[in-house]
Amino acid sequence: MTDNELFLLILMLVMGLPWLIWRLLGDADHAPLVVVQIFVGVLLGPGVLGAAAPALHAQIFPPVAITMLNGIALWAVMLFVWLAGIELDLSAAWAARRDSWTASGLALLTPLALGSAAGWLILINPGWIGPKGEPWQAILGIGMACAVTALPILMLLMDRLAILRTPLGQRVLRYASLDDIAIWAVLAIILLDWSRMERQLGFICVFPVLAWAVRMAMRRLAEPERLRASMVWLAAAGLAADWAGLHFMVGAFLAGVILDQSWFDGAALDRLRDMLLLTVMPIFFLSTGLRTSWSIGGVDLIAVAALLLAASVGGKLIGLRIAGHLLRWRRGEASVIGWLLQTKALIMIIFVNILLDRQLVSSGSFTALLLMALASTMLTTPMARRGLRRLTALEEPGDPPVRPPLSAAAPRPPS
């Protein structure tokens, strides 16, 4: 087969197979399409298909095809992270700062502490740290992976649960938004490269000036032109951050954070996100699955993934329970919010991809973290839905409604 024919065959697999499995499962709660796409990527990777049929795997996924896939995946995930940056609403978080800082802080720090402790236990054994990783980098990276919440996927799940526009949904978005900033800030610390310190200091000093200039220019552009200009700005910010040694994803996130969401048509941004999930993000999921490795051993990987899942889920629920007690939330709210913030697919996968790229964690650690992300995301919707039913049953007169009336909730096709 020619390179083009092989690439189109891969596209048929990555677009068709997950969708077919998802439709056959018929349960979008326990297996969202995003999770199925990542899972199929793992099945097609070297750990499963590569082990069962190495010759077939090598024929379908030669180096030239992997290079083509990685190029598309890189731009797709930069766009997705850029959108996540735009969606941050810091003004809302500041207006309710006591509630926001307390809840988001405990939702981040508790799983970070438990995940870091789990990472320390894991790294006692050989084979879990990357060849270029220092122990503190790997431990902090694993801990932060346990604390991550995927803001874009959280929005999609809350939309399906009919709580996105409710007071509860907006509070959850505030908490996730603040944690998003912390995630990328910690990643920048982990990636500090002393051999490139001059470049990194230069980036830190120059970026605010460039951001101010971009904001001034954006205000003068017509709304349809802002998206086109943003694509150039996104590529430039990613290039500058990568050149400085921080990674292009840090630049992509910052490129979105400095832009105001009000400058863009909200419906257009929603359509862009949906189109990314439909057309190119599945390629990123496949390329992620192709990087998994089971060389350490399946039993050990499952055990480590279970330990990380316990640290992640337990940390979120404990942290939000403490926050609910301090802030005097209604009974049942802490549990619902804790389960909603379990959503990890995409952002956590992007995060650990970066750790693997920089060889700070091994492919075994990457695979265990990926399995943890899949399990955590699959738990989110059914557990949150059950908690919402309980919370609705406990509503009292004068409480803000957990969900809007059925007539106010516009139907949305499953995603």
Count every helix, treating DSSP H or I runs of 4 or more residues as helices: 19
Residue share in helices? over 70%
Biggest sheet character:
none
String of helices and strands: HHHHHHHHHHHHHHHHHHH
pLDDT averaged over residues: 83
Q: What structural class do you assign from the helix and strand content? A: mainly alpha
Distance, first to last CA: 34 Å
| Number of beta strands | 0
Detailed description of the structure:
The chain has 19 helices and no strands. The protein is mostly helical and 415 residues long. It starts with a helix and ends in a 22-residue tail after the last helix.
Q: Key terms for this structure?
A:
globular; 415 residues; disordered C terminus; mainly alpha
Fold blueprint:
Layout: H1 3-25, H2 33-43, H3 49-52, H4 54-60, H5 63-86, H6 90-95, H7 97-123, H8 135-147, H9 151-160, H10 167-190, H11 197-220, H12 223-244, H13 248-257, H14 266-279, H15 281-289, H16 298-327, H17 333-340, H18 347-357, H19 363-393
Helix pairs in contact: 1-2, 1-5, 2-15, 5-13, 5-15, 7-8, 7-10, 7-16, 8-10, 8-18, 9-10, 11-12, 12-13, 16-17, 16-19, 17-19, 18-19
